[in-house]
Write a structure and sequence with these properties.
heterodimer, A: mainly alpha, about 70% helix, B: alpha/beta, 10 strands, globular
């Protein structure tokens, strides 16, 4: 093995007791668990010192720390543990750094929204609407109710359509019709949300005259966005149901429809519910289609078929975009509403996870 | 209305009594005959010209090397084969003289009379042990009294030698049982709807030797009540558990599988007519 010669690049005090005949090029030493962290923070501290001397730059510090740590842990691993482990440590550190990089926008976003949104986490914010509010005070009651109604109606419409479409596609469909439907579901997935809004707006304008704005129009736009997501996730869950269960049911003399309704769907149910939750979480923050379909409104409106209806994303947008004088209360309300929206989405995700953990049937064995 | 209800009730109970009695008295297994059966996957002929008869209340084993069409043939006996895209069958299969492939026959009805047990145990994961056993009735929304349903479940589980192991946890999920128990649960599920014929597609290949032995004992008892066809890779199993044995073989890869011979198990294993059969059962190939 020629690469056993490479230790010449590093002075190796531990090499003497370790016989070089080890076939894997491993050595007896181990870097302790705190080793990588020590390398990272040591490098960061040293680099900070250097940078302060020549002019501090945060970006340079982070990039420099990452690259030098990777090199450092590789050399250390090479000396103590051997070639393969050293490479493993360097790659681990590299991938960890990239993960940290990906987390930066998320952390920054959460920090910004929480720190700015906390200003309005008071009881008035959740118990009043914007009726007769001119400057400070006011709340999101009307927008929260509007979001619940609009998203609820959209869910009510898209879940049956989506699930039945998925059942058709996976359990019954074949040939050209199936291929065409799959294609159109894919196309629907890619529809920009503003186009869905324009569709709802145009449809209702044709039916009821121009300039109309209703809560249900927003629901229609969101339904168009939700259906392909529900179809896709349901299809995916149906695919996971083993064929053996369908065959077992058929072999008992059970018809296809009963098999689908009583064996396949119940087996996939937890996954389907999770998919629906994620679809709701996906559309609940849609702003563009609601902006043109539901309009803005400052009071509570419980009737989606009559008049404009406020909702959280549009409320956030209008408060931030068109502040009054002074602007601070408007900006605070915008951040507060954004925080509430994030919390709702997070709760939906947690509920989805809980359902799939608690009620999910173990299908893959 | 009251009288009507009562009538329906008595009709229901009397019919189940009938079936219970016939179930006990045995001799409900029926004869299956396949005639000139060609089985296709799309345009590919998988099994060619099989003509054979399955004797009632006997265990018929189908042996042969992998890919020779035993399972395909088995699945064509209760119209499970046609569930695969493009799969079709030519020729006829009759159950007591009635062609199960004739135009007016509903495959769902055929499968109610000819049940099946699969290679890997497949209890319904969303159902309890009780519901799994009663699945054939429940999924078809058969209306019956609780006690009657309890009776059927107990009888089926006792028949599958599972009752003593599960009677205290009938409401627990069926997927919590061991592999051998799950397979016996699947047999109980298949027998609870009281079919005439039970098809078994390598029912023991996923099980350890002890569980296999339990299933083989069970098969020996079940033939009192059902006609049984079992596909197996295990020649000792065919020799131990079956009354009659059919040997399938293929020429070369891509050729259709054919039935070489079907005879009493003893004869197949001691003194078969065809040289191929002798080579196979003596372990010279396959």
């Amino acid at each position: 093995m020629t690469d056993r010669q490479t230790p010449t690049m590093a002075p190796e005090p531990a090499a003497a007791p370790t016989p070089p005949t080890d076939p894997f090029g491993d050595k007896d030493g181990r870097i302790p668990a705190w080793g990588p962290w020590a390398v990272i923070f040591g490098t960061a501290a040293a680099l900070t010192g250097v940078l302060i001397a020549i002019g501090f730059n945060l970006v340079l510090l982070l990039i420099g720390t990452t690259l030098i740590s990777i090199l450092g842990i590789y050399v250390w691993g090479r000396i103590v543990e051997g070639r393969r482990q050293a490479f493993d440590r360097a790659i681990t550190l590299g991938i960890g750094s990239i993960f940290a990089l990906a987390m930066v926008p998320l952390a920054s976003l959460l920090y910004t929204v929480i720190s700015k949104g906390l200003a309005r986490m008071d009881s008035e914010f959740f118990s009043t609407s914007m009726r007769n509010v001119i400057a400070d005070g006011g709340g999101i009651l009307h927008a929260a109710i509007g979001t619940a109604i609009i998203t609820g109606l959209a869910t009510l419409a898209s879940v049956p359509i989506g699930i039945m479409a998925a059942v058709y596609l996976h359990e019954y469909g074949k040939g050209k019709l199936k291929r065409a439907l799959t294609f159109f579901v894919d196309v629907m997935t890619g529809i920009p949300s503003i186009v869905a809004g324009l569709f709802a707006f145009a449809l209702f304008s044709i039916l009821f005259g121009p300039g109309i704005r209703l809560g249900v129009m927003g629901s229609l736009a969101l339904t168009v966005l939700m259906i392909p997501i529900v179809v896709r996730s349901t299809e995916e869950m149906l695919r996971v149901v083993p064929d053996g269960l369908r065959e077992a049911s058929f072999a008992l003399g059970v018809s296809k429809w009963r098999t689908v309704a009583k064996v396949v769907l119940p087996t996939a149910m937890a996954g389907i519910v999770t998919g629906v939750m994620l679809a709701v979480a996906r559309v609940i923050g849609e702003t563009a289609p609601l902006l043109i379909t539901t309009g803005t409104f400052s009071s509570v409106n419980l009737n989606p078929f009559e008049g404009r209806m406020a909702n959280l994303p549009v409320f956030t947008y209008t408060q931030y975009k068109f502040p009054g004088v002074p602007p601070e209360p408007f900006i605070d309300r915008a951040w507060g509403a954004a925080l509430v929206l994030i919390v709702i989405v997070m709760v939906l995700f947690l509920v989805a996870r809980f359902i799939s953990r608690r009620y999910g049937t173990e299908l893959r064995k | 209305m009251d009288t009507k209800e009562r009538q329906v009730e008595t009709a229901a109970s009397s019919s189940t009594k009938d079936s219970t009695q016939s179930f006990r008295s045995g001799a409900v297994g029926k004869r299956i005959e396949a005639k000139d059966l060609n089985i296709y996957y799309g345009s590919f002929l998988a099994v060619k010209d099989v003509t054979m008869s399955v004797e009632p209340n006997k265990v018929t084993a189908l042996i042969g090397s992998s890919g020779c069409g035993k399972s395909t043939f088995l699945r064509s006996l209760n119209r499970m084969h046609e569930l695969i895209n493009g799969a079709r069958v030519e020729g006829s299969v009759t159950l007591e003289g009635q062609d199960i492939y004739s135009a007016g026959v509903d495959p769902v009805r055929v499968r109610q009379q000819i049940g099946m047990v699969f290679q890997s145990p497949n209890p319904f994961p969303t159902m309890s042990i009780y519901d799994n056993t009663a699945a054939g009735l429940k999924l078809n929304s058969k209306r019956m009294k609780k006690e009657q349903m309890d009776g059927i479940v107990e009888k089926a589980l006792r028949g599958a030698h599972l009752w003593d192991e599960v009677k205290d946890r009938l409401s627990k999920p069926g997927s919590g049982l061991s592999g051998g128990q799950q397979q016996r649960l699947c047999i109980a599920r298949a027998t609870a709807v009281e079919p005439d014929v039970l098809l078994m597609d390598e029912p023991c290949s996923a099980l350890d030797p002890i569980a296999t032995l339990a299933i083989e004992d069970l098969i020996d008892e079940l033939k009192q009540k059902f006609t049984i066809v079992i596909v197996t890779h295990n020649m000792q199993q065919a020799a131990r558990a079956s009354d009659r044995t059919g040997f399938f073989n293929i020429g070369e890869t891509g050729d259709p599988g054919v039935l070489i011979e079907l005879d009493d198990t003893e004869k197949i294993f001691s003194n078969p007519v065809h040289k191929e059969t002798e080579d196979y059962v003596s372990g010279r190939f396959g």
